[in-house]
Every structure is written in structure tokens, then in C-alpha cells.
Design goal:
91% helix, single chain, 113 residues, mainly alpha, globular
Length: 113
């Protein structure tokens, strides 16, 4: 049980990232909704997607998990496009930077001995 709590605490700290904060702010801004409410309800709604992503990663690896993440980002862009074309475009650009960042990080770490 202690290992589960330590691992879960580490995951909770890891999953918090500037990208999520930026996207939450963007979504709340364009929908004129409460930032905290968006974060809380979105977090609960994302739980099955997070579980699906880690199961996909375990079963098929990083590329498949990234593919799943790209699909969810495109889904977010499509949803946001209905609210604002600018918000949808910003969401799509952030998704593309995420993919590029993962590729560059893998390439750079591959250069290390």
C-alpha cells in the first residue's frame, strides 16, 4: 500500500504541467467559464482517457500512446472550433508542438551514451 501511495503521489505531481494549465486557461477564456470549474470537471472526465492512454502505452508502446494523445488533442481542437476558430487553431498548434517535442526529446536522448 505504501508503494501505491508513493507511486500515485509521484504521478499526481508529474501529470501537472504547464501545457495543461495553458489549455485550461484557453478553454475557460474562450467559453467564459470558471477556470477552477473547468479544471475540476475536466480532470474527472479525463480519468478514463488517462487510464486508456497508459494501457495503450503498456500494450503497444510510445508511438501508439502518442497516436491516442494526438486523437484526443484533435478532438479537443474540433470541440473548441465550435466555440472559436482561433481557440481550435491554438489547440491544434499546441498538439503539434507536443508531438514535435516528444520526437526531439527522443532524438536528443538517443545521442547520449
Amino acid at each position: 500500500m505504501d508503494n501505491l501511495l508513493i507511486a500515485s503521489g509521484a504521478f499526481a505531481l508529474f501529470i501537472v504541467c504547464p501545457r495543461m494549465a495553458g489549455m485550461t486557461n484557453l478553454i475557460a477564456k474562450y467559453t467564459h467559464t470558471n477556470l477552477v470549474h473547468v479544471a475540476l470537471i475536466g480532470t474527472v472526465a479525463s480519468l478514463p482517457l488517462i487510464v486508456a492512454m497508459v494501457l495503450i502505452f503498456r500494450q503497444w508502446g510510445l508511438v501508439a500512446a502518442l497516436g491516442f494523445c494526438v486523437l484526443t488533442d484533435l478532438g479537443a481542437a474540433l470541440i473548441m472550433r465550435g466555440i472559436s476558430l482561433k481557440a481550435g487553431l491554438e489547440t491544434l498548434i499546441i498538439a503539434l508542438f507536443l508531438i514535435l517535442g516528444v520526437k526531439v526529446a527522443s532524438w536528443l536522448s538517443g545521442l547520449l551514451p
